[in-house]
Design brief:
It is a single chain. The chain is mainly α. The chain has one domain. It is built from three helices and no strands. Helix 1 runs antiparallel to helix 2. The protein is elongated.
Length: 115
């Protein structure tokens, strides 16, 4: 394996892990935001339906982030297959992605209008 191929492989390895970490951070930020929004609405002076549309939109964003995370897992899986095919391995941290982590999942869409 040439030095350039090894350099490219190590760079891709670093970048896919960074992308996965950013995806996880986004999902955690959405969860914190939703928690704060719901907590704020528990104030006795705030109507129960306050911010409902915003919470619904945030839930949609969370679903999209989860879909992005799943797609990144699939990318990682494909890159791992390329690495095995080309003779490059993750000796220090092998990539093991369970089939359930990259399987097609259907998230039921709750029917509601967001006009």
């Amino acid at each position: 394996m040439t030095n350039q191929i090894l350099s490219d492989a190590l760079n891709i390895k670093k970048l896919i892990r960074e992308a996965e970490a950013v995806s996880d951070e986004a999902m955690m930020a959405f969860a914190k935001l939703k928690q704060a929004m719901i907590k704020a609405r528990q104030n006795p002076g705030v109507a129960l339906d306050t911010g409902q549309r915003a919470i619904m939109r945030l839930t949609q964003a969370e679903q999209q982030a989860l879909s992005m995370s799943t797609s990144l897992l699939r990318v990682h899986d494909e890159l791992s297959k390329v690495a095995r095919t080309k003779g490059m391995t993750d000796e220090d941290i092998p990539t093991v992605i369970e089939p359930s982590g990259i399987a097609e999942h259907t998230i039921s869409n709750t029917p509601f209008e967001l006009a």
